[in-house]
């Protein structure tokens, strides 16, 4: 390596004045510089070989490359196969020996970098410099010559999901992971395993493929709760190559409890690892769905990987003490959630269904139940026409715009609006002396069309928002949800159909429960599911006279109207509004059945997603709502 040296005037003066002595000073300088270069070159060669995981390609003094390579594999095996970056820093030479500071950065399997300075000894033998192998480790200053790194994974627990009063909705419990070791398993043992876990024909194919690839990676099979694993333990014990590991994982009281809202925990998928390689790694257990996924960064433990000296666990070289995840506080009440889920299960209907319950006083969400439990979260995210449940909002618009509930409004079986025939459910009608209260109780569409005809195009949209439909309260809720939509009307037919919850109106069960809670409370309060600070949940008062009259009408729905099925419900008076929304199904016209209302301090919305034409909220949703409130009353 060529080096060009520029002498300062002072140095040049020394050389000239010193004669032969000056010549020797310059010669020594040039020889020392060359020696430095040669020593550094040996250090850089060692760094390159290390980064390539081929230390045998470097030059050594005191051993051969194969010995160094074997020592490297033993010492660093625990650090994994992540990228290594090494640069040569300061070099200090004293004659034919030197020390080079290697700046090492080794990426661990959690994506973090283990960084250290490794002072590597160098020596000159003959005309060549190389790495001096002696009584110190080449790989870290705190390792013994034959020492090794050790890596400890976190044993900190994931945060739990809590409900009202600190109730544990998903608590850490022991689970058992069943896996196949492809190096030790046999077709016979895996065939037996298939029978035990109920995966006939699937696992043998995975074993064959793994053996063909000469894979050493364990093949995940199934994760069992303790209660499910215990009856199978004897059948799994002793099977060649079948590995069972136990660990802690948050679980709900049953597999279906709170699903799909609460979500699940499982191994990070290949797609997750590919999208966020610095966050996820193979074998890492993470939130896969629901609240577990949405709040994974909160619930997951941190600082869970430390590098120590093997045999000296207190000698921490990298990482911090593992910290458990933070528990997530929700407003869910286990008692109310159980009652809602049981009521859906008792219905025995093949149609998807949902129940949402709110605390009237606070607006907090008490239950989010879905059927089936392994489907979508239709209770929060569903978008459905609300049918006649929206007459609550239409009535609020009427009563706050000069309309009187004493008004006698005809209720013919059908009515023509701008050339379009609009009819009542089953072509029902009311006596000529019936007033608007009767039309509300009996859910007369034609009366609502006539009563609302003089409302401004945005009046029903405004009243819906005042009751909580179409307002963005997801920030206060703490999770994504559909808040509903009641747009300003466009034309007479659209205006007429919106008055009874058809046309372009949409709502989720949660948004209709918010509406019912607003009437019961006398104010609109944004709902809350995940407890958090800093969000505005200031109540917005409603017109007291209007909500007072609507309460009376919703009680009349139960005492003598379409909600008579709710009579005799334990726990006190029920206030309700039925709803039936027709839509074009895959096999022709079908209906959705609704019931919204409250009893005591619990507001609710019940949806049966699909019922035959001719059925509706009064005969399909009301029995489910009554069962829910009965179960809740029995729970105490």
UniProtKB/TrEMBL annotation:
SUPFAM superfamilies: beta-lactamase/transpeptidase-like, Penicillin binding protein dimerisation domain. One of its GO terms (cellular component) is plasma membrane. InterPro entries: Beta-lactam/transpept (IPR050515), Beta-lactam/transpept-like (IPR012338), PBP_dimer (IPR005311), PBP_dimer_sf (IPR036138), PCN-bd_Tpept (IPR001460). GO terms for molecular function: penicillin binding; peptidoglycan L,D-transpeptidase activity. It is found in: Membrane. Coiled coil: none annotated. It comes from the Bacteria. GO terms for biological process: cell division; cell wall organization. Residues 155-307 form the Penicillin-binding protein dimerisation domain. The keyword Cell division applies. Residues 354-629 form the Penicillin-binding protein transpeptidase domain. Pfam families: PBP_dimer (PF03717), Transpeptidase (PF00905). Keywords: Cell cycle, Cell division, Membrane. PANTHER family: PENICILLIN-BINDING PROTEIN 4B, PEPTIDOGLYCAN D,D-TRANSPEPTIDASE. Belongs to the transpeptidase family. This is Cell division protein FtsI/penicillin-binding protein 2. It comes from Barrientosiimonas humi.
């Amino acid at each position: 390596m060529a080096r060009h040296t520029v002498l300062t005037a002072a140095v040049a003066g020394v050389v000239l004045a010193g004669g032969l002595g000056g010549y020797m000073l310059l010669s020594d300088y040039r020889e020392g510089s060359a020696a430095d270069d040669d020593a550094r070159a040996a250090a850089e060669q060692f760094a390159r070989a290390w980064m390539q995981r081929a230390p045998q390609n470097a030059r050594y003094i005191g051993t051969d490359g194969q010995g160094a390579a074997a020592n490297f594999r033993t010492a660093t095996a625990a650090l994994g196969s992540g990228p290594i970056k090494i640069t040569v820093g300061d070099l200090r030479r004293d004659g034919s020996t030197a020390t080079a500071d290697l700046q090492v950065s080794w990426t661990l399997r959690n994506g973090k970098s283990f960084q250290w300075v490794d002072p590597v000894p160098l020596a000159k033998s003959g005309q060549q410099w190389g790495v001096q192998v002696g009584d110190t480790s080449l790989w870290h200053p705190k390792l013994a010559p034959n020492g090794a790194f050790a890596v400890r994974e976190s044993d900190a627990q994931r945060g739990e999901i809590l409900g009202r009063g600190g109730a544990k909705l998903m608590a850490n419990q022991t689970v058992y992971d069943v896996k196949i070791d492809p190096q030790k398993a046999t077709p016979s043992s895996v065939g037996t395993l298939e029978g035990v876990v109920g995966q006939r024909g699937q696992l043998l194919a995975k074993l064959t493929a793994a053996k063909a690839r000469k894979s050493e990676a364990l093949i995940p099979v199934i994760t069992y709760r303790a209660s499910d694993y215990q009856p199978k333990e004897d059948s799994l014990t002793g099977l060649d190559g079948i590995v069972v590991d136990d660990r802690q994982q948050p679980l709900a009281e049953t597999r279906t409890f709170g699903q799909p809202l609460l979500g699940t925990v499982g191994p990070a998928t290949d797609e997750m690892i590919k999208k966020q390689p610095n966050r996820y790694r193979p074998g890492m257990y993470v939130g896969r769905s629901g609240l577990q996924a949405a709040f994974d960064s909160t619930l997951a433990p941190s600082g869970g990987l430390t590098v120590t000296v093997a045999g000296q666990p207190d000698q921490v070289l990298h990482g911090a003490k593992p910290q458990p995840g933070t528990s997530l506080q929700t407003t869910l009440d286990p008692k109310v959630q159980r009652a809602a889920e049981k009521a859906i299960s008792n219905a025995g209907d093949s149609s998807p269904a949902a129940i949402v319950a709110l605390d009237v006083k606070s607006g907090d969400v008490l239950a989010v139940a879905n059927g089936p439990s392994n489907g979508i979260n239709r209770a929060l995210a569903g978008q459905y026409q609300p049918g006649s449940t929206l007459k609550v909002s239409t009535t609020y618009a009427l009563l706050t715009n000069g309309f009187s509930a004493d008004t006698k409004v005809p209720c013919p079986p059908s009515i023509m609006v701008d050339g379009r025939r609009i009819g009542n459910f089953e072509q029902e009608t009311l006596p000529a002396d019936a007033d608007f209260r009767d039309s509300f109780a009996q859910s007369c569409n034609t009366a609502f069309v006539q009563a609302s005809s003089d409302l401004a195009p945005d009046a029903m949209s405004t009243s819906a928002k005042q009751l909580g439909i179409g307002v963005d309260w997801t920030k206060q809720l703490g999770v994504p949800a559909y808040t509903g939509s009641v747009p300003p009307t466009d034309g007479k037919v659209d205006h007429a159909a919106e008055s009874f919850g058809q046309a372009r109106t949409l709502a989720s069960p949660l948004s209709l429960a918010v509406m019912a809670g607003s009437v019961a409370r006398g104010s609109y309060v944004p709902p809350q599911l995940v407890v958090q600070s800093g969000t505005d949940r200031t109540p917005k008062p409603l017109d007291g006279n209007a909500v007072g009259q609507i309460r009376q009408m919703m009680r009349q729905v139960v005492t003598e109207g379409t909600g008579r099925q709710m009579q005799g419900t334990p726990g006190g008076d029920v206030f309700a509004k039925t709803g039936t929304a027709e839509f074009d199904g895959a096999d022709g016209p079908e209906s959705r059945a609704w019931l919204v209302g409250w009893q005591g301090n619990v507001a609710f919305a019940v949806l049966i997603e699909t019922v035959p034409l001719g059925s509706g909220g009064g005969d399909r949703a009301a029995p489910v709502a009554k069962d829910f409130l009965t179960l809740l009353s029995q729970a105490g």
